[in-house]
Specification:
505 residues, alpha/beta, Cytidine Deaminase, domain 2, Rossmann fold, 2 domains, eight-stranded mixed sheet, seven-stranded mixed β-barrel
Length: 505
């Protein structure tokens, strides 16, 4: 069902909401004048296009760093440019000079701007040593970019994507929607408009895990009209899964073969031949939407080759619950500036008596500017260490998360988590989320019919989401991910495991 993608050589800029608001406030003041700054950015390349990932912003002080121009209206001082381009060279980041013009929905460089680029950017390319350099010009709700590439090419930015509470897309000029609306989306379009339908059709969304929560997310996203879904899960359908997977049948789990009354060899054969969960997901998508391209991967998300298929997504959902998968999801969100959400449900029972202790569903937005799963204590160093051990080592240590011990799980609890996460995605990408919307995690407690909101925290020195020199934030292809076949040997804060090694399974 997956289709071969053609290579897209376009360039865009992705910038976290907090960084964009800082820049916008600096540029657009009551004086109505022109102001300047420099953005540094990582680079990410894929078949879907190339992205600049905004990491740092350096605001130019009027009269000191941003002064009257010698051949134009204003210019960045030579010393300011020198220090920033050297920083970009040393950190392997792209350099983008920024200033503003008047206007609201359309913007472009002046003749003086373009001539200054032609005079100065060849020299900056030499200093940058293989990284792009360029410029941005902003209006109130528009962005244009002129990017010079190390191979001698020169391109315009097709769009600037702001990720945060909402996912906003700014272009140099308004983009008109072409084509006729599919009538099957008439009721949905009454909420988010034809423009929202078009946006959803253009998105690539990743779902990590196709079990109880992931299968529901796949169903919701396909019916919403998402254009491209990539889903990964290594497992096959089993009889205990049937009541939690929409559309699953006894035949999918080969229930006759795996019945406890059958011989052991026949049960093993049945488990090996049962339908992979990603094939179940593919069947859901075929039934739900004729517009959705589906890419199902029956493998381990931790493999480098598989993880790479998620690095150019527009949004990610984490619906799997091992610490290593959380670690990698968290890294991709912040290294590639891809907004996402972690969704799940859990029932905690007393080990000996089976008495129910806690029941909850959670939906946690995870965006590059709000604080990561590390900062919020949602990645356990001890469990990471346990998961990196071999099965024999785990058994020797009496590893409590024994995969043969099935935890309680109910489809309705999964549905609460999946629906909330899908709604957050829908409202964010269609622009319906309010600018003042809460960023809190949501925890639904059905036993006492309460909803609890948990404010995420952010550590400025975090090596995942912080802006310290060694952090992975916005590094794009310039940093390694903690996949199964790489090592993560960076020094971690004191509350983490140092020199954590991801072992080959």
């Amino acid at each position: 069902m997956a289709q071969k993608q053609t290579i897209n050589n376009s360039w865009s800029l992705t910038i976290p909401e907090d960084l964009y608001r800082t820049l916008h406030t600096h540029l657009f003041r009551e004086d109505g004048d022109e102001h300047g700054a420099v953005i540094t950015a990582g680079v990410a390349k894929s078949q879907r296009g190339n992205r600049l990932l905004a990491r740092d912003i350096f605001l130019a002080v009027d009269g000191r760093d941003y002064v009257p121009g010698e051949r134009g209206y204003r210019m960045l001082k030579a010393e300011f440019v020198r220090d920033r381009i050297r920083y970009c060279r040393d950190e392997r980041l792209a350099y983008l000079a920024v200033h503003n013009h008047g206007g609201v929905h359309s913007v472009g460089f002046s003749g003086d701007d373009l001539r200054s680029h032609e005079r100065g950017y060849p020299a900056l390319l030499d200093i940058a040593r293989g990284m792009p350099v360029g410029a941005l010009v902003l209006a109130e709700k528009a962005v244009a970019g002129d990017v010079w590439l190390p191979d001698g090419g020169r391109v315009e930015l097709v769009q600037t994507v702001i990720v945060g509470r909402r996912v906003e897309r700014l272009t140099p000029r308004p983009v008109r929607i072409a084509g006729q609306l599919d009538q099957s989306y008439d009721r949905e379009a009454r909420l988010f408009g034809d423009a929202g339908v078009a946006v959803l059709r253009q998105l690539k969304v990743g779902v990590i895990g196709a079990g109880g929560v992931g299968s529901l997310l796949v169903e919701f996203l396909a019916r919403l009209g998402v254009g491209h879904l990539v889903v990964v899960d290594p497992d096959r359908v089993e009889v205990p899964n049937l009541r939690r997977l929409p559309g699953a049948t006894d035949f999918d789990a080969l229930a006759w073969f795996t019945d406890t009354n059958r011989p052991e060899w026949l049960r093993r054969l049945g488990k090996r031949l049962a339908k992979p969960k990603v094939k179940m997901a593919a069947r859901q998508v075929r039934r739900a939407s004729r517009h959705t391209e589906f890419e199902g991967i029956a493998g381990n998300f931790l493999d480098q080759e598989i993880a790479s298929k998620f690095m150019d997504c527009d949004y990610l959902f984490l619906a799997a619950d091992t610490m290593q998968v959380r670690l990698l999801f968290n890294a991709i969100v912040h290294q590639y500036l891809i907004p996402g959400a972690q969704a799940g449900a859990k029932v905690l029972a007393e080990e000996l008596t089976g008495d129910i202790q806690q029941v909850f569903s959670v939906s946690r937005p995870v965006t590059p500017d709000v604080g990561c799963l590390w900062c919020n204590g949602l990645i356990s160093p001890s469990k990471l260490q346990e998961e990196s051990n071999s099965p024999e080592e785990r058994r020797a240590q009496r590893y409590v998360n024994d995969p043969n011990v099935l935890a309680p799980s109910v489809i309705t609890l999964n549905a609460v988590a999946a629906a909330q996460a899908a709604n957050d995605f829908l409202f964010a990408v269609t622009g319906l989320t309010l600018a003042s919307a809460s960023r809190d995690y949501l925890r639904y407690l059905p036993r006492d019919r309460r909803v609890r909101f948990e404010m995420p925290r952010k550590d400025a020195d975090c090596l995942e989401c912080g802006n310290t020199a060694g952090s992975r934030k916005a590094r794009g292809d310039g940093a390694r991910l903690p996949t199964r076949y790489t090592e993560c040997r960076r020094e971690l804060p004191k509350n983490r495991v140092s020199n954590l090694r991801m072992k080959r399974c």
